[in-house]
Amino acid sequence: MLFTEDNYRFMYAALQEAEIAFEENEVPVGAVIVKDGMIIGRGHNQTERLKDPTAHAEMIAGTAATNTLQSERLHGCELYVSLEPCIMCTGALLLARLSTIHFAAFDSKFGACGSLYNFPQDEKYNHTIQVYSGILEKESQTLLQSFFKKLRKNSL
Description:
Elements: H1 5-23, E1 30-35, E2 38-44, H2 47-50, H3 57-69, E3 77-83, H4 87-95, E4 100-105, E5 130-133, H5 137-155
Parallel strand pairs: 3-4, 4-5
Antiparallel strand pairs: 1-2, 1-3
Helix pairs in contact: 1-5
């Protein structure tokens, strides 16, 4: 599939958020939420910093976006995230009625958008989300691999 210039631009913004997480010794996942061509929410993993297992990049970006819109719904919004969303984040995105998820790398351990499950497109729910993968996948994988390599090295 061919991606647009905007797809790359917004995924690059998500990767910039992931780099911030990396610098803060968090698992390097970053996310942005876009509406009408503008970023309305940004986030990166902060689970260690906040001592909160729900402080995933998608959740933080979602909170920022709903605050921007002054609504609990994200109709017409797109998420760009450097790693496939987990079950928790996908559930929150379904409840928020997000329109589209774009993610860079698959997550074979926790992914809920095609790897382990495909909740966004399960027609058992009253809402479905379009999902696209592979935008800047290699860059995201490289960042994640670097982080875990550094983590293993520091734990020796």
